[in-house]
Design a protein that fits this description.
Distance between the termini: 30 Å
CATH superfamily: Creatinase/methionine aminopeptidase superfamily
Structural class: alpha+beta
Largest sheet: 5 strands, antiparallel
Shape: globular
CATH topology: Creatine Amidinohydrolase
Strand order of the largest sheet: 7-6-8-13-14
CATH architecture: Alpha-Beta Complex
Order of helices and strands: HHEEEEEHHEEEEEEEEE
Number of helices: 4
Length: about 260
């Protein structure tokens, strides 16, 4: 289903997006050496509840996961990149942590992810990987607007990732979002310009470039959810929810 939101719904999406960004900013500030991933999940649940919002994750049970996710934020560390299920693990100096969060407020969802390094150490490659996903995300957003096609966004994202020398996995990518978290159209992280669905004002998209340092193959943890690089290499992931407007694209998941 491809959903075009009303002006009132896009206004509500702005509030949802700001909430997602504010929670992620708070979690980043609390992600210190020694912080337990389960504490990050607990704090997320508290902030969602205090805002009068609801989690898009806790009861989420798609075909690619094993039962309901059961947690409120995805926490992916080092070689984990997607759907990281929080567990009893304390962050160490130099860990590359990705936090991915989606919530629904007043009937509209927003989704965002950030990657950063915990503590003072900066292991080789970590900053380059993070900055590459951020540049790819910016390129995808710059390509978005009324009349553009999904392939234009995918091509813009993929061009940045390929130029930086990273393999690109095509199994998971961006997606439509609106009154529910995951909708059509799918936005692959590489593609051909000029192809695919034509964007219209009122369409919301979650764009999410993610990379693994030396492979495009994923393996699934025993928890049935956490996806890791097949070689154990480092990973990074950046995501924003955007709204297509009459003038271009508006980033919704910026802090208030």
């Amino acid at each position: 289903m491809i959903e075009i939101l009303t002006t009132a719904q896009v206004d509500r999406a702005r509030r949802t997006g700001a909430l997602v960004a504010d929670i992620l900013r708070s979690l980043r500030e609390r992600s210190l050496v020694g912080t337990n991933l389960l504490d990050l999940d607990r704090w997320t649940a508290e902030m969602i509840r205090e805002a009068g919002a609801e989690s898009c994750y806790v009861d989420y049970a798609p075909s690619f996961g094993r039962g309901p996710f059961g947690h409120y934020v995805c926490t992916a560390v080092n070689d984990a990149v997607l759907h990281g299920r929080p567990r009893d693990q304390r962050l160490a100096d130099g860990d590359l942590l990705t936090l991915d969060l989606a919530v629904r407020l007043d009937g509209v969802a927003a989704d965002s992810a950030i990657s950063f390094v915990v503590g003072e150490s900066r292991p080789p490659g970590t900053i380059d990987m993070i900055e590459t996903t951020e540049r790819a995300l910016a390129a995808g957003i710059a390509a978005a607007g009324p009349g553009a096609r999904i392939g234009d966004l995918s091509h813009a994202i993929g061009s940045v990732l390929r130029a930086a020398g990273y393999p690109i996995n095509m199994q998971f990518g961006g997606h439509g979002i609106g009154t529910t978290m995951h909708q059509d159209p799918h936005v692959a992280n590489d593609g051909r310009a000029g192809r695919g669905y034509q964007l219209r004002p009122g369409l919301l998209l979650a764009l999410e470039p993610w990379i693994m340092a030396d492979t495009d193959e994923l393996v699934t943890d025993d928890d049935g959810w956490t996806l890791r690089s097949a070689t154990g290499c480092l990973t990074a992931h950046s995501e924003h929810t955007i709204a297509i407007t009459d003038d271009g694209a508006e980033i919704l998941t910026l802090p208030s």
